[in-house]
Amino acid sequence: MKSPPCCMSLSSQAPLEEPGSSTSLGSLDSSVFSSEEEQGPLIHKVIPSLDCFTINVGGSRFVMSQQTLSCYPDTRLGKLAVVVSAARDVASGLLELCDDANLVENEYFFDRSSQAFHYILNYYQTGRLHVMEQLCALSFLQEIQYWGLDELSIDSCCRDRYFRRKELSEALDIKKDAEELDAQDEEEDFSGSLCPNVRQKLWEVLEKPGSSAAARTFGTLSMVFVVVSIANMALISVELSWLAPPLLDALEYLCIAWFTAEFVLRLLCARDRCRFLRSVANIIDLLAILPFYITLLVESLCGGESSQELENVGRIVQVLRLLRALRMLKLGRHSTGLRSLGMTIAQCYEEVGLLLLFLSVGISIFSTVEYFVEQGVPGTTFTSVPGAWWWATTSMTTVGYGDIRPDTTIGKVVAFMCILSGILVLALPIAIINDRFSACYFTLKIKEAALRQREALKKLMKNSSSDSNINVNLRDIYARSVMDMLRLKSRERASTRSSGADDFWF
User: Fold this and answer.
1) Given the DSSP bridges, would you call strands 107-110 and 60-65 parallel, antiparallel or unpaired?
2) Which of 83, 171, 205, 257 could anchor a disulfide with 215, C-beta 3.0 to 4.6 Å?
3) How far apart are the first and last CA of the chain?
4) Looking at residue 432, what DSSP letter applies?
5) Residue 404 half-sphere exposure, CB side, CA atoms within 13 Å?
6) Domain membership of residue 420 as a residue range
């Protein structure tokens, strides 16, 4: 019995193998697929049936008909069907489309995710591409691009959710890259600079409150001075017989001296001073102490001038003293909640802008309508459209001071519509902002836990290198740190699920 010609070895002159042997692309010589005229009968024996294809994806087999694949000629499997059916240059064509092939069994191998391929298979069968929920948006995009599909082919029921998740994935990737750069920058030492060891220790005390006992003490003192400064700023405006103004002034000078020393030390210890001065937190620190020195400078320069000039100087000083309220923002260095609020506002600027836009439109419309409805009423409080803006603002934000109110029935109906519109407008972006705040808060918590564990590992490694008798299991410590972060992450996911934010997490 003669063996079939499909099982030829690397040389076309070699004897044929036994029937039933598997033949991959690597075991076939390229001359076998040279031309249709010379090898046409051989090709049709190598590939006995073109009606069905066996697609092996990650070890899972799927049988698909040529008619189904030929409906999508621009996809990878559609091109595969075209190449095999044309029987022209099969070897080189298949090598570009699949990882390997068994030409005897008409089976083609792809080293890809078999779970994701179920969604690709469903697209070939129904023409509808749905999104795999268990896979992140960017990974799913890579899968469909490999198979020659476009993200515009995603069905309308999954399209909005997919693009939201893709946008969030890209934002997280950018944020992760930035955090990795920051982490690399933090790991850089002060070698080559003046007094590197001293600057390194001072920097850890100033910027890493949990790194040592001295750093924790310094962070606590800094927070105490911020609170005392805020309380002192409030007490200066109150006339108390038992509290002398010189005492409050002395307390103010003490707080300013602490803030100045803290800022100068941070500036001297910074590796990149330009980057240090561009930081938002450091700009806030500078604005918290700058008004005090500007006030002293202005008063010293204009101390002997006329009363009119002194009055102008006094106005300038009062304006500058208002900036002392920025000291409250210094608490953001020590409060995870305040930092989360800042991150939320920075990430939700589009939603906040839309909220302000909706409120502005509503205020303009309802204030104008209410003014023309109420202007003919004797003794009305709606004297002008700009005056009605205040009423519309308090009504849409559901504050309702009552200093300006409508008297007519039509005016009250307009006021009811204004209040109802305000409730609806405020409710739209609040859920998104709340979800972002929860995500930012738990992200910061995870980062803080990771930093604490990293510092602990560094200390233990340093101690173990200096003391050979110490018994430390770094693997257990690392496992505990991972478990802590997983607990925080599970809490985060539970929180976002309970608030209806499943579309934003994957």
Assistant:
1) unpaired
2) 205
3) 59
4) H
5) 22
6) 347-461+470-504
DSSP per-residue string spanning 172-220: HHHHHHHHHHHHHHHH---TTSSSHHHHHHHHHHHH-TTSSHHHHHHHH
Number of structural domains (the chain) is 4
CA dist list (Å): 184 to 179, 187, 453: 8, 5, 17
Claim to verify: residue 354 and residue 239 sit in the same structural domain = no
pLDDT of residue 482: 59
HEC assignment per residue over 393-428: HHHHCCCCCCCCCCCCHHHHHHHHHHHHHHHHHHHH
- Measure the CA–CA gap between 136 and 4, rounded to whole angstroms: 47
Give the pLDDT of residue 279.
Answer: 81
Distance CA 113, CA 123 (A): 16
Residue 119 CB-half CA count within 13 A: 23
Cβ-proximal residues to 391 (8 Å cutoff; 6+ apart), any chain: 367, 370, 381, 382, 404, 405
- The pTM assigned to this predicted structure is 0.50
- Give the per-residue pLDDT at 393: 92
One-character DSSP codes across 288-340: HHHHHHHHHHHHHHTTTS-HHHHHHHHHHHHHHHHGGGGGGGGGGGT-HHHHH
Quote the CA–CA distance of 360 and 342 in Å, as a whole number.
Answer: 24
In what order do the strands lie in the sheet containing 107-110?
60-65, 52-57, 107-110, 100-102
DSSP 8-state class, residue 470 = -
Percent of the chain with pLDDT over 90: 11
Confidence of residue 351 (pLDDT cuts 50, 70, 90): confident
* Per-residue model confidence as pLDDT tens digits over 44-87: 444 445 578 899 998 899 998 888 888 888 899 988 888 887 76
**Residues in CB range of 255: below 8 A, 6 or more apart:** 225, 228, 229, 232
Domain boundary among 69, 87, 111: 111
Residue 169: both structure tokens together = 């994935």
Q: Are residues 182 and 200 in the same domain?
A: no
Q: Are residues 242 and 211 in the same domain?
A: yes
Position 208, amino acid: K
Rg, the chain, Cα only: 36
